[in-house]
Specification:
Helix content is about 30%, strand content about 25%. By secondary structure, the protein is α+β, with helices and mostly antiparallel strands. It has a single domain, classed as Aminopeptidase. A hairpin with a 2-residue loop joins strand 2 and strand 3. The termini are far apart. This is Putative acetyltransferase. It comes from Cesiribacter andamanensis AMV16.
Amino acid sequence: MNRIIKRVGPQEIEEFTALIKLFEEVFELPPLPLPATSYLQQLLLQESFHVFVAMEGSEVIGGLTAFTLPQYHSTAPLLYVYDLAVAPSRQRQGIGRELMATAIAYAREKGMEEVFVQAEEEDLHALDFYRATDAQGQRIFHFTYPLLSTKGT
C-alpha cells in the first residue's frame, strides 16, 4: 500500500484526532478528552499551526504538529516542531524522516529561517532519531510554569 504525507486541513478532523490518539499511544499519555470539533477546526484554520500526517489508505501511521514563530531579529519566521510520532509497529521505516523532510520543505517554501524541535534528555529514542538526521543538536534546559490543573479539577 502506498504511503502519503499530507498537510491536514480544517475539514480533516478525523485525521487530526487520529494523530492526537497516536500521540497518546506513543508518548504513553493517559487518554484525555478531546476539545470540541469546532475548536479543533479553528485550530487547523490558524496560519501559524501546522499538522502533517503519514497515511496508508485511511490509516494515520504517523504525524507531526508544528507552530510558526515570528522573530524580532528577522522577518523570516521559525518553524517549531511541537510533537512528532510514528505508530510503534511502523517505526524505523523512514516515516519520521519523511515527516521531518516534508515539514522542512514546507518551511523552506514559506521562506522560514529555521526548523527546530526539542527532545527530552531521557528520551534516547528521540535523541537518536534527530542525531541521525541533518539536525544540529544543542544542549538546552526547558522550564515550565504549569497554570492549569489537568487532573480533572
